[in-house]
Amino acid sequence: MSVPCSWHTLSAAAAAAELNVDPARGLSQRAAAARLAEHGPNLLPAARRRGPARLLAAQFSDVMILVLIAAAVVAALVGEPVDAAAIAVIIILNAVIGFVQDYRAGRALAALQDLAAPRARVRRGGRVLEVDARALVPGDVVLLEAGDIVPADLRLVEAAGLTVNEAALTGESIPVVKAPGARAVATAPLGERRNMAFKGTTVTRGRAAGLVVATGPHTELGRIAALLETAEQGRTPLQRRLARFGRRLALAVLAVCALIFIAGLLRGEAPLLMFLTAVSLAVAAIPEALPAVVTITLALGARRMVGENALVRRLPAVETLGSVTVICTDKTGTLTENAMRLEKVCSAAGEHDGLPSGDTLPGRALGTALALSNDVQRGAAGWVGDPTEIALVEAAAAAGYDKAALSAVRPRIAERPFDAARQCMTTVHGGESPVAYTKGAPEAVLGRCRAVLTAAGPAPLETAAWLARAEALAARGFRVLAVACRELGSADEPPEQDLLLLALVALMDPPRAEAAAAVAECRRAGITPVMITGDHPGTARAVARRVGIAGEKATVLLGEELATLSGPALRERVLDIAVYARVAPAQKLRIVEALQERGQVVAMTGDGVNDAPALKQADIGVAMGRGGTEVAREAADLVLLDDNFATIVAAVKEGRRLYDNIRKFIKYTMTSNAGEIWVLFLAPFLGLPLPLLPIHILWINLLTDGLPGLALAAEPAEGDVMARPPRPLKESVFAHGMWQHILWCGLLIGGVSLAAQAWALAGHDAHWQTMVFTTLVFAQLAQVFAVRGERQSLFAQGVFSNGWLLGAAGLTAALQLAVIYLPGVQGVFKTGALTVGELAFCLALPLLVLVAVEVEKALLRRGWLYR
Predict the structure, then answer these.
(1) Are strands 176-177 and 326-329 parallel, antiparallel or unpaired?
(2) How far is CA 683 from its chain centroid?
(3) Which of 314, 367, 617, 622 could be stapled to 401 by a disulfide with Cβ–Cβ 3.0 to 4.6 Å?
(4) CA angle centred on 631, ends 61 and 93, rounded to 5°
(5) Using CA atoms, how far apart are residues 787 and 664, in angstroms rounded to an integer?
(6) Do residues 285 and 671 lie in contact, with contact meaning Cβ atoms separated by under 8 Å?
(7) Residue 438 DSSP SS3
(8) Residue (of 857, 706, 861) closest to 780 by Cα position
């Protein structure tokens, strides 16, 4: 048995012949067993996951982590177990967090299994049986009815009023009418294969029988699973920057420590003392708190974002949002409400928003028709049925036409269900005199009408003019239906002839109220929104215009045209296209990859199964939490709990704030460490004795890099955070003058500390080493307050606007004073109690650092520095 790929191009008879099965009887049990052995179970492919040992080992491969491991070993060897233990705890914490994140990332494919129907009804050997869906094989005849999840890809052979919700697979917001007799070309997108039903989609109305043509990995859902498995999640911009930072820092630290060690030996210092000093400086110079600060900063940001209805699944993704340059967004349920709504009514009296107001004959007739001519039922949680019919019933109810009350007066006595050939639906209702209501495609209904109802009664119908009105509404992105009626002399009269047109009704899945403002905010932040949808191009264009993604003359690229573009051709055009329609899952992935190849940092928002591969491939995937599928949520980095596109704006702002705060910590800690290095490096050249002992260096490192640095994570966002363009993907973490600041400010911190040493030695002060020690600590505290803003003055920010930093600085100062004045501790740190005058000098001198950094920021604001 050959297995062609284009089943939708074959007739039902040809498909049955190809599968060697009689649809009226189905396969025999023996044939089904043989095919199950040949094709395997109807299961989606399982993810190939790395084992726990490999996942754990991968957490220790980063250069920064390797340097920290070496630092911990060295600290332990030189007799500093507390420092070694602190570094080890940080390493283990990061390994555990990374392990958990990687393990959870592998669950996206497992979530696809949840879409499989556990049981299926089939014809086998002339009998209807219920079997495990995993046992379905090509050639099985599956029976479907409303509410069923399609268990495999089917070529339909029978159908009665069948509609299928394919939104999770294609992005189409309207259930698709299926017809076994329909044929399509081989290249037709999934949404236009009307004779097919696909695994994982849901039957919303009617019943059908279909031949299984693909199972498990060979289904369209299985192809998505394969795409999801092969899509790679690259390292985030933050991870790449920190990796580069770690490699450069390790080399620089080794070189500086070697120079200090050699310089000390040349001065005649004891080799053991210089060795311990060099090693202690190496430990201090590496900001071992950086991974912890990054993790804690992102965790605090993730906690804040939950309050903004955004759930973070991967911590680095929070920062990545600040680098996003393009947001590829789905339409249905993301920009729109994922619920049809009647928006326009075009009657003989003109075009109206909603049903015509006033107690007019056409208004009463139309309201009654919309309330009665449908299969909608009242459920426990609201209306149940076809989304389009629900929209019509809700519009009628809002205008005062209650379905239950009208049904009691005019009960349904006959019906003609919708089918693809007639393209309309008719219901016949009793009462004083029977009346038929018909709704459907305008070209089908108008062809059956003899007149149009006006306020004065029936009037001649100009069919061409009404068709033109319908086309104009469709061009604006509406789904258009014509509604008509006919009073019957008896229930036996043909109900779909000589109809009286009531109106054209235009429906749309409307944009969310917040979508336009969110898109505008994205543009102000330098982010380009792009719509990628499987929906109709007219609908996509209309929604894109209404929310501001596309202008009046914007080009909509269809999936069929996209399929003809080569990789280079797509890369050439990808930055110029704002709207894509009728796209397949693999094409969404192509678009994301093409944008990334053009240097863009891409966020992909979506809610359906079809979005999962692109969500995983994107730099950051954003899934919908309410209306989205579990597959999309598992593949994503960020889940919007309220399914609100506007929440992305808050997430972008938070991502930028967090990256700013991480930069502030790096600036602070590297400048502080540079100050320590300058103190030790310059002292010999200035003829000063060794200013600090190894214990002093380690204490300063633990004290100042710890609490004050962590408190910077709570720093509020600066005022211009959303007025800046996104950061370039390859931008160094030291950009915008950071390395210059580290150089000159570190030299200043070292200078004021050496000035304290020179002043104390000139006065023959026995506590000169304690004064250097104390001045260096308070100079670093002055600097942490100064770097709270990149450009904004500390006084404009408010000295008290970060209470955590105030508390951390106060505790740090108290611990330093304890080291100086507590007798039991003085012996350990080899310090002496300073006089009031000496302490005042050590507190006043560091204020020069604060003043100097404020001058630097003033120059930055004027554009005179670091252009």
Answers:
(1) unpaired
(2) 53
(3) 367
(4) 30
(5) 6
(6) no
(7) strand
(8) 706
Is residue 373 within 8 Å of residue 427, measured between CB atoms?
A: yes
Give the Cα separation of 7 and 196 in Å (integer): 8
Give the model confidence (pLDDT) of 2-34 as tens digits.
444 689 999 999 999 999 999 999 999 999 999
Going by C-beta distance under 8 Å and a sequence separation of 6 or more, which residues neighbour residue 178?
Answer: 156, 159, 162, 163, 164, 194, 195, 196, 197, 206, 208, 420
188 contact partners, CB below 8 Å, separation of at least 6: 8
Query: Which stretch of DSSP H or E encloses residue 715?
Result: none
DSSP-H helix ranges across 106-153: 107-112
Question: Nearest-5° angle of CA 109, CA 131, CA 156?
Answer: 80
Contacts of residue 483, Cβ cutoff 8 Å, sequence gap at least 6: 366, 369, 370, 373, 437, 438, 439, 445, 501, 502, 503, 504, 505
Question: Other C-beta atoms within 10 Å of 837: how many?
Answer: 8
Catalytic residues: 330
Contact 285, 253 (CB under 8 A): yes
* Whole-number pLDDT of residue 13: 93
- Radius of gyration from C-alpha coordinates of the chain: 35
Model pTM above 0.85: no
Cβ atoms within 10 Å, residue 686: 10
pLDDT tens readout for residues 223-234 = 877 766 555 545
- In terms of Cα–Cα distance, which of 197, 221, 222 is closest to 211? 197
- Taking residue 415's Cβ as centre, other Cβ atoms within 10 Å add up to 16
For tokens 């308070």, name the residue: 778
Give Dmax (Cα) for the chain: 121
CA distance 429 to 413: 5
Burial 189-206 (b: 16+ CB within 10 A, else e): bbbbbbbbbbbbbbbbbb
Q: In terms of pLDDT, which residue wins out, 94 or 302?
A: 302
